[in-house]
Design a protein that fits this description.
binds pyridoxal-5'-phosphate; TIM Barrel; eight-stranded parallel β-barrel; nine-stranded mixed sheet; 2 domains
C-alpha cells in the first residue's frame, strides 16, 4: 500500500492513482476498510518530532534538559506509550489524563500536573499515584496542596506557574502569558514574588522552579526570548530577595504548526538553538544563573502527524450565494473552526488528479449552523460518497471532541509499519452507556 511522494504541505503526504496517501497508506482504501470519520496518525512522524525536541534540547540547553509532551493535544494510551519509549516527559492537566498515562505504563515521576483549578480529589489522586511535579497555579492551590501532602506524609515537588506579561501574536483564546490571564501568578503585580515566598515556607512542598507558557501556534522566537529574559530576571530577584536558587525553568509549549500553505515552515531544532543561544548570552551578559530548561510542546508533536478523512453526505448549491459540502463529521470531532476559525487544508482524497475548481464551505452534520470545518475551500466538484480529507488534525481535535447530537467519536488509526487501532470507534452503546432509566 505504499505510494510515491509528492510535494503537499508536509512530506508524509503523497498521491497514488489519484488517491491521497498519508504516511505511505492510501487514505481512500483506509476509509473503505475502517469507515469514516476516520482519524489517521503517522507514528514515525510523531517519534521523529519527539526525537528532534529531545536531541536539540539536550544539545543546546544541556544534558538535563527535556521536552514534556503536552498531552492535552491528544491524550490516549498510544501517545503516552510512544512518549515513554522515546524517553521524554509528559504534562497532564487532569486526573483523566493522569489515569490514561498510568494505564499506558508511563512513569508518573516524569509527569507534571498543570491546571488552574485542581480539586482536593485531583490533588490526593495525583499524590497517591506518585506524580513527579505539581505546577501550582495559585495560592489557593498551594495551601491545599501543602495540607494534603502533609496528610499523605509526602514532601511534594512543585513548580510555580508565573505569567511573564508577554503578548505573542496569536489568537486571544490561545494566548496565555499576559497579566490578565486565568493562568498563573503575575510578576508585574508582585504576586509572583509573594507566592514564591509562601511556597518556600511550606514544610510539605519542595519548590524546584518556575514555569511559564505564553500561548500556542507561535511562529516567532522573539516572544520566547523575551519570556526567558523576564523569567531569568525574576529568578535573579528571587535569589536576591528570598535566597532561593531554583533548578528548573519550564518555558512551556507553543511552537507553530503549518496548517495551510501560507503558514511558514519552521525548524524546531533551529528555534531551540536560537532560544538557547539567547539564554546563554543573556545569562553571561548579566551574570545570571542558568537553571535546567524544560519545554512542553503539544501541537507541534502531533498536529501534522494527524489527518481526518470523511465521506460527503450532500452537496447543496445555493445559486448566487454559496455551495455547501456536508460531511459525516463536524464540530463534534473537530470544533476548532467553530471555536476560533482555525484554518485547515481540505482536499478530495479520491480526486487528487482532478482540478480544484469548485468553491465551497465544508459543513458538518450536526444541528448547529456554526458547525463548519472550513469556508471558501477549492476542491474538485464532489458528490455524495466522495472522501474529504482535512489535514493537520492531530492536535486539539480528538482531544476536544464531544458527543454533541449523540454522534460517536471517530476511530483513531496509528499508521506505522502496520496499521493499529489507537482508539476504537465509539458505538451506540458507548454514547448512552451512562444513562439510567427512571423508575
Ligand atoms: C501549560 C501549557 N503547556 C503546554 C501547552 C502546549 O502548547 P502547544 O500545544 O501549543 O505546544 C499548553 C497549551 O495550551 C499549555 O497550556
Amino acid at each position: 500500500m505504499y505510494c510515491k511522494e509528492v510535494n503537499l504541505l508536509h512530506d508524509n503526504l503523497s498521491v497514488r492513482d489519484g488517491h491521497l496517501c498519508f504516511a505511505g497508506y492510501d487514505t481512500v482504501e483506509l476509509a473503505k476498510k475502517y469507515g469514516t470519520p476516520l482519524m489517521l496518525l503517522d507514528e514515525q512522524r510523531i517519534r521523529n518530532t519527539m526525537r528532534t525536541y529531545k536531541n536539540a534540547m539536550e544539545k543546546y540547553f544541556g544534558k538535563e534538559s527535556k521536552p514534556l509532551y503536552a498531552s492535552k493535544a491528544l491524550s490516549c494510551i498510544a501517545m503516552y506509550q510512544i512518549a515513554k519509549e522515546e524517553g521524554i516527559y509528559t504534562d497532564i492537566v487532569s486526573i483523566g489524563e493522569l489515569y490514561t498515562a498510568k494505564r499506558a505504563g508511563f512513569p508518573l515521576e516524569n509527569a507534571f500536573f498543570h491546571g488552574n483549578s485542581k480539586t482536593d480529589f485531583d490533588i490526593e489522586y495525583a499524590i497517591e499515584n506518585g506524580i513527579g511535579y505539581f505546577v501550582v497555579d495559585t495560592s489557593d492551590e498551594l495551601y491545599a496542596l501543602d495540607r494534603i501532602a502533609e496528610k499523605k506524609g509526602v514532601v511534594q515537588k512543585i513548580l510555580l506557574r508565573i505569567t511573564p506579561g508577554i503578548d505573542p501574536h496569536t489568537h486571544s483564546a490561545i494566548s496565555t502569558g499576559k497579566v490578565d490571564s486565568k493562568f498563573g501568578t503575575a510578576i508585574e503585580t508582585g504576586q509572583a514574588l509573594e507566592i514564591t515566598a509562601s511556597a518556600l515556607c511550606m514544610s510539605n512542598l519542595r519548590l524546584e522552579g518556575f514555569h511559564c507558557h505564553i500561548g500556542s501556534q507561535i511562529f516567532e522566537i522573539e516572544p520566547y526570548c523575551d519570556a526567558s529574559e523576564i523569567m531569568l530576571g525574576f529568578i535573579d530577584k528571587v535569589k536576591e530577595e528570598l535566597g532561593f536558587t531554583p533548578t528548573i525553568l519550564n518555558l512551556g509549549g507553543g511552537f507553530g504548526v503549518r496548517y495551510v500553505e501560507s503558514d511558514p515552515v519552521i525548524s524546531y531544532e533551529e528555534n531551540i538553538k536560537r532560544i538557547a543561544e539567547h539564554i546563554d548570552s543573556y545569562c553571561e551578559a548579566n551574570q545570571l544563573y542558568k537553571p535546567t530548561i524544560l519545554m512542553e510542546p503539544g501541537r507541534s508533536i502531533v498536529a501534522d502527524s494527524g489527518m481526518t478523512i470523511y465521506t460527503v453526505g450532500s452537496v447543496k448549491k445555493i445559486p448566487e450565494y454559496k455551495n455547501y459540502v456536508a460531511i459525516d463529521g463536524g464540530m463534534a470531532d473537530n470544533p476548532r473552526y467553530a471555536l476560533y476559525q482555525s484554518s485547515y487544508t481540505v482536499l478530495c482524497a479520491n480526486k487528487m488528479n482532478e482540478s480544484p475548481s469548485f468553491n465551497c464551505t465544508i459543513a458538518g452534520r450536526l444541528c448547529e449552523s456554526g458547525d463548519l470545518i472550513q469556508e471558501n475551500v477549492m476542491i474538485p466538484p464532489v458528490q455524495r460518497g466522495d472522501n474529504i480529507a482535512v489535514l493537520v488534525t492531530g492536535a486539539y481535535n480528538y482531544a476536544m471532541s464531544s458527543n454533541y447530537n449523540r454522534v460517536h467519536r471517530p476511530l483513531v488509526l496509528m499508521l506505522g509499519e502496520s496499521e493499529r487501532i489507537a482508539i476504537k470507534r465509539e458505538s451506540f452503546e458507548d454514547v448512552s452507556r451512562l444513562d439510567e432509566f427512571l423508575d
